[in-house]
Amino acid sequence: LKCEDVIEAYIDRISVVEPYINATVERSIDVALKEAREVDSLIASGKYTKEQLAAEKPLLGVPFSVKLFLNVKVVALKQVLCLIGYLNTAGCRCFENMRATNDAECVRLFKEAGAIVIATTNVPEFGMNTETVNYLHGRTKNPYDTNRGCGGSSGGESSLIGAGGSVIGLGNDILGSVRIPTHFCGIYGHKSTHDLVPNKGTCPPDRFEKMQGAYNILEAGPMCRYAEDLITTMRVLAVGDEEIRRKIGQPVDFKKLKVLYLTEIGMYLMCPIRKDLTEAMKNVGSYFSTRYGVEYKEIKLPFLRKVTKCFISELQQLIPNASSGFLDGIGRPLNKKWDLIKSVFGKSVLSFNINMIMNFADFPLVYRKSENSYYNKMWQEVVQCFDDLLDENTVLLLPSFPTTALYHHEMIFYCLPCCPYAGLFNLLGLPATQCQIGYDSEGLPYGVQIIGRKNNDNLTISCAVELEKAFGGWRSPGKV
């Protein structure tokens, strides 16, 4: 089997599924096939042994897709000389014609490891939504039920991989942007310990760097159809700490494992976890207990009830900084309240959802800037509580989202009440691996996120690999 055959197979698969799911923004077929032929020539030359290729190019010839929020440069062919890079729109009309001029760091690492870009994938406008829809590229659908959403903001990525149109991909996670869509689409994703994977190159170019605070909770990371691919991809990506990188893929003694799970976070205004998802967590704990004789138990964290406003405070300090970085591209001052009114009638360059989110940051009944110091002190206490809870052999189970995939337009009501299930661990900087576990009575996939102590990424990923063997992992939504 040649690399060119593999790339052609995935290009063909995308052509089959794309009319149903609308996951991709751009495909560079000629460039991908050219790179595949170069891989075949390299292998045929005998210049490197298999062992050398495995060590130096662990992703050689592997097709991958990339979330639209990550810069991707194109090596132009004669047929596509007009392209210097893939579109870099962030799903917003004010960046409609913007293209990347270089690769994001994580994209560069994948390319240097030998992987081949086959497509970029859709995102919500500015990434500020858990449903992937925007004015420029339309609505992306769930491969298991096209009447439902695929999550966000890495929704196009998860939909394409879940549909079999890609095998690995790159997303980035801010408040669950990798874990929620992978939960909805039945695949695997990893949000690393903070700063383990480089974030540089998030689009739009030169704007994300201006968003003070956003980098503190943003993590680029892999999204994969198979859990074991998280090991290979994270070995490529985890350049922020060589010690952690070396540990990834090392054997774990599951007999020392301690499994904790939460059936509720306890924060005010939160949506409850659906019963079958609670049972899934218990089944995971039961599996480890039966197979390895380890302890598993439900825990309560009553201190989280006190930090609802603290969590909102963190978000509301982030939103103005994040949105201002994007809004530099509009080219005019933005009156948030007036633009909200205009968006109701479709007259704003921004959607109604984005205008609502930006105005949320100024809502005084929820949040007061004068209380920031109090909230920040309380947040440090939360960080310490989780540090005490999680040791080197302990994982915490919690769904990334309390339901399976919702119907289109429903997510607007669930976004904020469900945000802390995944977003809490961005703010804490802890590693969290989304693991596919099963399917509900309607055939919709669901999973569980496995959270570990800071720098303990290998444990959460290893648990996902073990659970894939036990529960079966990804299942195609249709004939392949």
TrEMBL record:
Pfam families: Amidase (PF01425)
GO terms for cellular component: endomembrane system
Domain Amidase: from-to ranges: 5-460
Keyword Hydrolase: yes
InterPro entries reported in the protein's UniProt record: Amidase_dom, AS_sf, FAAH2
Example of a GO MF term: hydrolase activity
Keyword annotations of the record: Hydrolase
Protein's recorded name: Fatty-acid amide hydrolase 2-A
